[in-house]
Amino acid sequence: MIKENVQRLLKELPEGVQLVAAAKARTAQEIEEAIAAGIKIIGENYVQEAERVFRAVGRKVKRHFIGHLQKNKVNKAVKIFDMIETLDSAPLADALDKACARENKIMPVLVEVNSGREKQKFGVLPEQIQPLIEELSRKQHIKVVGLMTMGPQFGDPEQARPYFKETKKIFERIKGLSLPNVEMQYLSMGMSNSYQVAVAEGANLVRIGSKIFGARESAD
Ligand SMILES: *Cc1c(COP(=O)(O)O)cnc(C)c1O
User: Fold this and answer.
1) Predicted model pTM
2) Cα(220) to centroid(ligand 1), Å
3) Which whole number is the average pLDDT over 77-89?
4) Are 35 and 2 in contact (CB under 8 A)?
5) Does residue 170 line the site of ligand 1, with CB under 6 A?
6) What is the dihedral of CA 94, 99, 100, 101, to 10 degrees?
7) Would you identify the CATH topology of the domain 2-213?
Protein backbone atom coordinates (compact mmCIF):
# COMPACT_ATOMS: atom_id res chain seq x y z
CA MET A 1 0.00 0.00 0.00
CA ILE A 2 2.64 2.53 1.05
CA LYS A 3 4.72 1.74 -2.00
CA GLU A 4 1.83 2.22 -4.43
CA ASN A 5 0.74 5.41 -2.68
CA VAL A 6 4.20 6.96 -2.88
CA GLN A 7 4.68 5.97 -6.50
CA ARG A 8 1.28 7.36 -7.49
CA LEU A 9 1.99 10.67 -5.76
CA LEU A 10 5.47 10.99 -7.24
CA LYS A 11 4.07 10.40 -10.68
CA GLU A 12 1.23 12.85 -10.17
CA LEU A 13 3.20 15.78 -8.71
CA PRO A 14 4.53 18.22 -11.30
CA GLU A 15 8.27 18.56 -11.75
CA GLY A 16 9.76 20.89 -9.18
CA VAL A 17 7.29 19.95 -6.45
CA GLN A 18 8.90 18.00 -3.64
CA LEU A 19 7.03 15.51 -1.50
CA VAL A 20 7.50 15.45 2.26
CA ALA A 21 6.20 12.27 3.90
CA ALA A 22 4.49 13.54 7.07
CA ALA A 23 5.37 10.63 9.30
CA LYS A 24 4.00 11.44 12.76
CA ALA A 25 2.96 8.32 14.64
CA ARG A 26 4.40 6.03 11.93
CA THR A 27 6.89 3.29 12.66
CA ALA A 28 10.43 3.18 11.35
CA GLN A 29 9.37 0.25 9.21
CA GLU A 30 6.56 2.18 7.55
CA ILE A 31 8.96 5.03 6.92
CA GLU A 32 11.52 2.64 5.42
CA GLU A 33 8.84 1.38 3.03
CA ALA A 34 8.10 4.93 1.93
CA ILE A 35 11.81 5.59 1.40
CA ALA A 36 12.20 2.41 -0.61
CA ALA A 37 9.37 3.67 -2.85
CA GLY A 38 11.13 6.98 -3.51
CA ILE A 39 10.50 9.35 -0.59
CA LYS A 40 13.44 11.74 -0.13
CA ILE A 41 12.16 13.93 2.74
CA ILE A 42 10.61 12.86 6.04
CA GLY A 43 8.56 15.33 8.08
CA GLU A 44 8.25 14.84 11.83
CA ASN A 45 6.17 16.80 14.37
CA TYR A 46 7.72 15.73 17.64
CA VAL A 47 11.41 15.87 18.49
CA GLN A 48 11.45 12.81 20.74
CA GLU A 49 9.54 10.65 18.31
CA ALA A 50 11.79 11.85 15.50
CA GLU A 51 14.94 10.94 17.45
CA ARG A 52 13.67 7.41 17.89
CA VAL A 53 12.69 6.99 14.26
CA PHE A 54 15.83 8.64 12.84
CA ARG A 55 18.04 6.34 14.89
CA ALA A 56 16.59 3.48 12.86
CA VAL A 57 16.31 5.24 9.51
CA GLY A 58 19.62 7.10 9.50
CA ARG A 59 20.67 9.93 7.22
CA LYS A 60 19.72 8.58 3.79
CA VAL A 61 16.86 11.08 3.45
CA LYS A 62 16.36 14.72 4.49
CA ARG A 63 14.55 15.46 7.73
CA HIS A 64 12.13 18.35 8.10
CA PHE A 65 10.60 19.47 11.37
CA ILE A 66 6.93 20.31 10.74
CA GLY A 67 5.47 20.48 14.27
CA HIS A 68 5.41 23.29 16.80
CA LEU A 69 8.94 23.70 18.12
CA GLN A 70 9.23 24.36 21.84
CA LYS A 71 12.26 26.26 23.02
CA ASN A 72 13.36 23.47 25.33
CA LYS A 73 13.60 21.12 22.33
CA VAL A 74 15.66 23.43 20.16
CA ASN A 75 19.07 21.97 21.00
CA LYS A 76 17.99 18.48 20.05
CA ALA A 77 16.10 19.65 16.98
CA VAL A 78 19.16 21.45 15.65
CA LYS A 79 21.19 18.26 15.89
CA ILE A 80 18.75 15.97 14.10
CA PHE A 81 16.86 18.06 11.50
CA ASP A 82 17.93 19.47 8.13
CA MET A 83 15.18 22.09 7.94
CA ILE A 84 12.71 23.68 10.37
CA GLU A 85 9.48 24.43 8.50
CA THR A 86 7.68 26.07 11.39
CA LEU A 87 9.63 29.04 12.66
CA ASP A 88 6.98 31.29 14.18
CA SER A 89 8.54 33.85 16.51
CA ALA A 90 11.58 36.02 17.13
CA PRO A 91 12.36 34.38 20.49
CA LEU A 92 12.33 30.94 18.85
CA ALA A 93 14.61 32.29 16.12
CA ASP A 94 17.03 33.57 18.78
CA ALA A 95 17.10 30.20 20.49
CA LEU A 96 17.63 28.41 17.16
CA ASP A 97 20.36 30.82 16.08
CA LYS A 98 22.26 30.31 19.33
CA ALA A 99 21.90 26.53 19.23
CA CYS A 100 23.08 26.43 15.60
CA ALA A 101 26.07 28.62 16.46
CA ARG A 102 27.08 26.08 19.10
CA GLU A 103 26.73 23.29 16.51
CA ASN A 104 28.60 25.37 13.96
CA LYS A 105 25.76 24.97 11.49
CA ILE A 106 23.39 27.11 9.46
CA MET A 107 19.79 25.90 9.63
CA PRO A 108 17.44 26.52 6.69
CA VAL A 109 14.06 27.63 8.02
CA LEU A 110 10.60 28.33 6.67
CA VAL A 111 8.47 30.90 8.44
CA GLU A 112 5.03 29.55 9.29
CA VAL A 113 2.17 31.78 8.23
CA ASN A 114 -1.12 31.63 10.11
CA SER A 115 -2.92 32.33 6.87
CA GLY A 116 -6.38 31.65 8.31
CA ARG A 117 -5.76 33.94 11.31
CA GLU A 118 -6.93 31.11 13.54
CA LYS A 119 -6.58 31.77 17.26
CA GLN A 120 -5.84 28.13 18.06
CA LYS A 121 -3.16 27.79 15.37
CA PHE A 122 0.53 28.56 15.50
CA GLY A 123 2.22 30.72 12.94
CA VAL A 124 2.73 34.38 12.23
CA LEU A 125 -0.08 36.64 11.05
CA PRO A 126 0.31 37.72 7.41
CA GLU A 127 1.10 41.37 8.22
CA GLN A 128 3.81 40.33 10.71
CA ILE A 129 5.72 38.15 8.27
CA GLN A 130 7.80 40.87 6.68
CA PRO A 131 9.01 42.53 9.91
CA LEU A 132 9.91 39.11 11.31
CA ILE A 133 11.83 38.06 8.21
CA GLU A 134 13.68 41.40 8.15
CA GLU A 135 14.78 40.63 11.69
CA LEU A 136 15.73 37.05 10.81
CA SER A 137 17.81 38.21 7.87
CA ARG A 138 20.34 39.57 10.39
CA LYS A 139 20.91 36.18 12.05
CA GLN A 140 24.10 34.34 11.21
CA HIS A 141 23.11 30.76 11.86
CA ILE A 142 19.63 30.49 10.42
CA LYS A 143 18.69 31.17 6.85
CA VAL A 144 15.13 31.88 5.73
CA VAL A 145 14.43 29.83 2.60
CA GLY A 146 10.66 30.24 2.30
CA LEU A 147 7.23 30.02 3.90
CA MET A 148 4.99 27.28 5.20
CA THR A 149 1.28 27.33 5.96
CA MET A 150 -1.28 24.84 7.19
CA GLY A 151 -4.32 26.95 6.41
CA PRO A 152 -7.74 26.20 7.84
CA GLN A 153 -8.88 22.61 7.30
CA PHE A 154 -12.06 22.06 5.35
CA GLY A 155 -13.79 18.98 4.04
CA ASP A 156 -13.73 20.71 0.65
CA PRO A 157 -10.16 21.73 -0.19
CA GLU A 158 -11.44 24.43 -2.58
CA GLN A 159 -12.21 26.45 0.53
CA ALA A 160 -8.51 26.47 1.42
CA ARG A 161 -7.58 28.08 -1.89
CA PRO A 162 -7.79 31.75 -0.76
CA TYR A 163 -5.39 31.02 2.11
CA PHE A 164 -2.87 29.38 -0.20
CA LYS A 165 -3.25 32.30 -2.62
CA GLU A 166 -2.58 34.82 0.13
CA THR A 167 0.48 32.89 1.34
CA LYS A 168 1.87 32.78 -2.21
CA LYS A 169 1.33 36.53 -2.50
CA ILE A 170 3.33 37.12 0.70
CA PHE A 171 6.00 34.73 -0.59
CA GLU A 172 6.40 36.73 -3.82
CA ARG A 173 6.40 40.04 -2.02
CA ILE A 174 9.18 38.97 0.37
CA LYS A 175 11.11 37.50 -2.53
CA GLY A 176 10.90 40.83 -4.32
CA LEU A 177 12.58 42.56 -1.38
CA SER A 178 15.84 40.64 -1.98
CA LEU A 179 16.72 40.78 1.72
CA PRO A 180 20.26 39.76 2.64
CA ASN A 181 20.55 36.16 3.82
CA VAL A 182 16.97 35.40 2.69
CA GLU A 183 16.43 33.10 -0.27
CA MET A 184 12.75 32.54 -1.01
CA GLN A 185 12.92 29.07 -2.54
CA TYR A 186 10.32 26.92 -0.84
CA LEU A 187 6.59 27.32 -0.41
CA SER A 188 5.31 24.48 1.77
CA MET A 189 1.52 24.15 1.51
CA GLY A 190 -0.97 21.35 1.17
CA MET A 191 -1.71 18.06 2.91
CA SER A 192 -3.48 14.87 1.85
CA ASN A 193 -6.81 16.46 1.10
CA SER A 194 -5.55 19.81 -0.19
CA TYR A 195 -2.25 19.30 -2.01
CA GLN A 196 -3.70 19.59 -5.51
CA VAL A 197 -5.18 22.99 -4.75
CA ALA A 198 -1.96 24.02 -2.99
CA VAL A 199 0.20 23.01 -5.96
CA ALA A 200 -2.10 24.90 -8.32
CA GLU A 201 -1.55 27.97 -6.12
CA GLY A 202 2.23 27.66 -6.20
CA ALA A 203 3.31 25.19 -3.49
CA ASN A 204 6.59 23.43 -4.26
CA LEU A 205 6.74 21.40 -1.06
CA VAL A 206 3.70 19.33 -0.06
CA ARG A 207 3.43 17.52 3.28
CA ILE A 208 1.45 14.33 2.93
CA GLY A 209 0.68 11.78 5.64
CA SER A 210 -2.50 9.77 5.38
CA LYS A 211 -2.44 9.57 1.57
CA ILE A 212 0.88 7.74 1.96
CA PHE A 213 0.54 5.77 5.16
CA GLY A 214 -3.23 5.39 5.52
CA ALA A 215 -5.54 7.00 8.06
CA ARG A 216 -4.12 7.81 11.49
CA GLU A 217 -5.68 6.50 14.69
CA SER A 218 -5.64 9.88 16.41
CA ALA A 219 -6.46 13.03 14.54
CA ASP A 220 -3.92 15.79 15.04
C1 LIG B 1 0.08 15.60 9.89
C2 LIG B 1 0.55 16.76 9.13
C3 LIG B 1 0.51 16.76 7.73
C4 LIG B 1 -0.07 15.65 6.90
O5 LIG B 1 -1.42 15.51 7.14
P6 LIG B 1 -2.30 14.44 6.28
O7 LIG B 1 -3.64 15.00 6.32
O8 LIG B 1 -2.16 13.15 7.02
O9 LIG B 1 -1.71 14.38 4.94
C10 LIG B 1 1.03 17.88 7.08
N11 LIG B 1 1.56 18.91 7.75
C12 LIG B 1 1.60 18.94 9.08
C13 LIG B 1 2.19 20.11 9.76
C14 LIG B 1 1.10 17.87 9.82
O15 LIG B 1 1.15 17.90 11.15
Assistant:
1) 0.96
2) 8
3) 98
4) no
5) no
6) 90
7) TIM Barrel (3.20.20)
